[in-house]
């Protein structure tokens, strides 16, 4: 499988009368995009805002983050299962707009409760918060959706996702008007020296139910057992996030620009032989299912001849048990493992950093304590609304002016856990 | 150039050359300059620090006259005007380790830094590690040469008020706190490199050393359930409607008990699950599914259990602080014992 990935780098976004990309500037016709994002049914209105890195701006109520990508020729589409048939992607030619993200910002029309709900996650475009969230380093086209009267959460969530994907495709289409890519990558896992270590990536995604789930080729992975993906499939949007527990989510943007896949890919053929991605879910409902899942991860690894597996997880809490069962099963099968994880441990770092553990997990890399608190300053501009309400452990906290200075942790930041893992944060015993 | 640090060194009767177990009851004394392992320590300090005096006490004397030993030794130390106290290495010797820890903590309470050194098996480690920097050593004095440079380096840092790095880098026992650090490389790159090292059989160091959660041995069976007082305990967060006591939905710090004496079952609308880690719709629809009062009443009626206790116990088990949960569990268990409860039906989410 070979994918040619052409990158057109966006260096500025601005509003204009015609949506176009030229000379590094992405011009947005807001009315066109708003029309395209709407559905004339459960979405009452869409506003389009443009936000760039370094601004004193805070984006709130963010659901998913996308990156414009489109297939050129062939019989497949980017984001298969949503924008076209669920055919295997990851081959042929794909164009992407780099340095830009399409963000969905919305408030759900119906109340939610328990675990299946939206958690606020801030994107700060400057200051200390920018270092703990995804979305602060990209020029952002923010689509602010308002639900129609009487819309259900299920209908609205699906409409928002599709609306944002249509806008995302429209932006990627601007690369068809000429111009040359800033970078061209030929992505293939060609034959590697048999002496190199054979390595796979195990991606345990969050799957708990509506609002806290992951899509593979357009379908929720509720009933999925661990399967094998070519990393190129990620680059074409085979995996889409429907997880709105914002602090712990892996946004679609991050799956399209996956730091673990990039790290392994870059070393393929020189330092290692990258075999592929073992893709599966966590948060299974009982211990037997968790153990079963762990053994299935190990079985796939063994059958493809992996000697080592780099494991990550999305989410926290009970999904750690699934994760540690997989560690145990892999090591038992003779496959060496390393885990890349977040840690908790309380505001002071005095509690246990993780909730489950097996002695085989002797090589853990951590993004550091996601509970540690820090200050973020007041901002000049808020995009997506005016107030935020954070989930606290006593229910919902106070309604807070979104522009104000706050004391937060990665729990209040958009994809805070994964950001810490990818930006070089770590934790150490003192 | 920095001024030469003044160090006072504490050793027991054995390392002072007075004698072994037979001399463990010698009272506190002191000598000017380094003694015994202090000679090696002085070498490790080089020109950076000087051991101005050595404090000595028999291990038994210290343990049997702890307050007096501390007061006497600190008074002796005052005569030397030292900046830093170094205690040990005590290796695996329990009384020596305890003396080192006790003296060092007392010294630090007076506002000056101290550093000790012990083996992981020394009971002094668990007693003092959260309050004191304790250098990790091998089990016996054979590990002296390896321990002294680490001990000297840490004593210098502390004496000069320099920042002390992570435990694994500096060689001391973690003090039960994890701090954030910022590294050049992303987690993904570090993980790939660690995996390659592990595959190549090269050394690697986990960023999260875990010492294990321990195990809870199951208690013996209840001798006669038909006469036993049985309680319902749950981590499902089921509380009276409105959550009057503000039980948390995650990271709980509290437990409560609520009366059920007058009830045959828990009626819908009167109770609700306050739990942020599972779908609570089913529990709210029928609260007995979290706290099975209806089923327990049948067991009671059929004399399968003796009697059901008049209250149920509840906390929330979700994204919780494990040390806190251990405390909550111990508190609930203590209350259960006090009430004479012999068995518990523990329901989890």
Structure at a glance:
The complex is a heterodimer of chains A (430) and B (349). Chain A is α/β, with parallel strands linked by helices and 430 residues long.
Describe the structure.
The complex is a heterodimer of chains A (430) and B (349). In chain A, helix 1 packs across helix 2 and helix 6 (287-303) crosses helix 7. Chain A is of the alpha/beta class and 430 residues long. Chain A is built from eight helices and 28 strands. Chain A has a six-stranded mixed sheet with strand order 17-19-14-20-21-22, with helices on both faces. A four-stranded mixed sheet of chain A has the order 8-9-1-13, with helices on one face. In chain A, a hairpin with a 2-residue loop joins strand 25 and strand 26. Chain B has 349 residues and is of the alpha/beta class. Chain B folds into two domains: 5-170, F420-dependent methylenetetrahydromethanopterin dehydrogenase (MTD) (Rossmann fold), CATH 3.40.50; 225-347, no CATH class. Helices cover 33% and strands 20% of the residues of chain B. Chain B has eleven helices and 13 strands. Chain B has helices at residues 37-45, 59-64, 66-78, 94-109, 123-128, 144-159, 167-170, 187-199, 281-285, 293-301, 322-338; strands at 5-12, 29-32, 49-57, 84-87, 114-119, 133-137, 178-182, 229-234, 238-240, 256-259, 271-273, 307-314, 343-347. In chain B, helix 5 links the parallel strand 5 and strand 6 (133-137). Chain B is elongated. The N and C termini of chain B lie far apart (63 Å). At the A-B interface, helix 5, strand 20, strand 21, strand 22 and helix 8 of A face helix 7, strand 7, helix 8 and helix 11 of B.
């Amino acid at each position: 499988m070979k994918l040619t990935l052409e990158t057109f780098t966006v260096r500025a976004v601005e509003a204009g009368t015609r949506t176009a990309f030229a000379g590094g500037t992405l011009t947005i016709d807001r009315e066109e995009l708003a029309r395209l994002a709407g559905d004339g049914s459960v979405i009452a209105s869409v506003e389009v805002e443009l936000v760039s890195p370094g601004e004193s701006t805070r984006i709130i109520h963010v659901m998913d983050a996308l990156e414009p990508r489109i297939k050129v020729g062939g019989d497949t589409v980017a984001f298969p299962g949503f924008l076209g048939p669920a055919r295997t992607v990851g081959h042929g030619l794909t164009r992407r707009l780099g340095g830009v993200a399409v963000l969905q910002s919305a408030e759900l029309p119906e109340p939610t409760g328990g675990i299946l709900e939206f958690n606020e996650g801030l994107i700060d475009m400057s200051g200390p918060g920018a270092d703990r969230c995804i979305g602060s380093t990209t020029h952002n086209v923010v689509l602010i959706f308002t639900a129609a009267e009487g819309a259900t959460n299920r209908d609205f969530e699906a409409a928002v996702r599709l609306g944002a994907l249509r806008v995302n495709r429209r932006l990627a289409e601007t690369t068809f008007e000429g111009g040359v890519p800033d970078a061209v990558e030929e992505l293939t896992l060609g034959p590697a020296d048999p002496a190199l270590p054979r390595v796979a990536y195990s991606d345990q995604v969050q799957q708990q139910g509506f609002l806290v789930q992951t899509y593979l080729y357009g379908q929720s992975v509720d009933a999925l057992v661990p399967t094998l993906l070519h990393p190129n499939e990620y680059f074409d949007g085979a995996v889409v996030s429907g997880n709105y527990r914002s602090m712990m989510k892996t946004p679609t943007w991050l799956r399209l620009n996956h730091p673990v896949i990039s790290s392994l890919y870059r070393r393929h053929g020189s330092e290692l032989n990258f075999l592929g991605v073992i893709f599966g879910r966590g948060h299974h409902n009982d211990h037997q299912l968790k153990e079963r899942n762990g053994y299935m991860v190990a079985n796939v690894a063994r059958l493809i001849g992996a000697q080592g597996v780099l494991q990550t997880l999305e989410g926290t809490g009970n999904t750690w048990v699934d994760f540690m069962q997989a560690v145990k099963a892999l090591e038992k099968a003779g496959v060496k493992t390393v885990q890349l994880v977040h840690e908790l441990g309380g505001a002071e770092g005095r509690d246990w950093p993780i909730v489950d553990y097996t002695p085989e997990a002797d090589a853990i890399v951590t993004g550091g304590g996601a509970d540690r608190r820090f200050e973020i300053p007041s901002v000049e501009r808020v995009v997506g609304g005016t107030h935020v309400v954070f989930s606290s452990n006593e229910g919902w906290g106070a309604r807070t002016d979104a522009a104000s200075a706050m004391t937060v942790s990665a729990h209040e930041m958009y994809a805070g856990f994964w950001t810490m893992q990818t930006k070089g944060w770590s934790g150490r015993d003192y | 150039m920095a001024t030469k640090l003044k160090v006072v060194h504490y050793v027991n009767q054995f390392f002072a050359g007075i004698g072994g177990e037979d001399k463990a009851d010698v009272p506190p004394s002191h000598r000017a300059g380094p003694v015994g392992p202090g000679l090696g320590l002085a070498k490790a300090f080089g020109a950076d620090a000087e051991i101005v005096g050595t404090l000595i006490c028999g291990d038994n004397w210290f343990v049997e006259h702890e307050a007096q030993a501390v007061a006497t030794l600190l008074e002796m130390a005052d005569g030397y005007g030292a900046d830093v106290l170094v205690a040990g290495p005590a290796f695996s010797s329990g009384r020596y380790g305890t003396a080192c820890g006790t003296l060092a903590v007392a010294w630090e309470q007076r506002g000056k830094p101290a550093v000790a050194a012990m083996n992981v098996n020394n009971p002094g480690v668990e007693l003092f590690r959260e309050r004191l920097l304790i250098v990790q050593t091998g089990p016996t004095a054979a590990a002296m040469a390896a321990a002294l440079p680490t001990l000297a380096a840490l004593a210098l840092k502390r004496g000069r008020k320099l920042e002390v790095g992570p435990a694994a880098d500096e060689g001391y026992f973690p003090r039960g706190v994890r701090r954030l650090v910022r590294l050049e490389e992303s987690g993904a790159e570090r993980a790939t490199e660690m995996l390659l090292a592990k595959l190549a059989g090269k050394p690697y160091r986990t960023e999260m050393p875990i010492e294990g959660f321990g195990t809870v041995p199951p208690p013996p069976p209840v001798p006669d359930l038909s006469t036993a007082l049985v309680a319902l305990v749950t981590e499902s967060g089921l509380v009276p409607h409105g959550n009057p006591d503000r039980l948390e939905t995650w990271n709980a710090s509290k437990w409560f008990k609520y009366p059920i004496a007058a009830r045959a079952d828990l009626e819908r609308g009167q109770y609700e699950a306050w739990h942020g880690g599972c779908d609570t719709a089913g529990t709210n629809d029928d609260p007995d599914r979290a706290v099975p009062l209806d089923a327990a009443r049948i067991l009671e009626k059929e004399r399968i259990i003796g009697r059901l206790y008049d209250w149920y116990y509840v906390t929330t088990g979700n994204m919780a602080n494990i040390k806190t949960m251990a405390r909550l569990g111990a508190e609930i268990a203590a209350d259960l014992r006090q009430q004479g409860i012999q068995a518990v039906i523990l329901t989890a989410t």
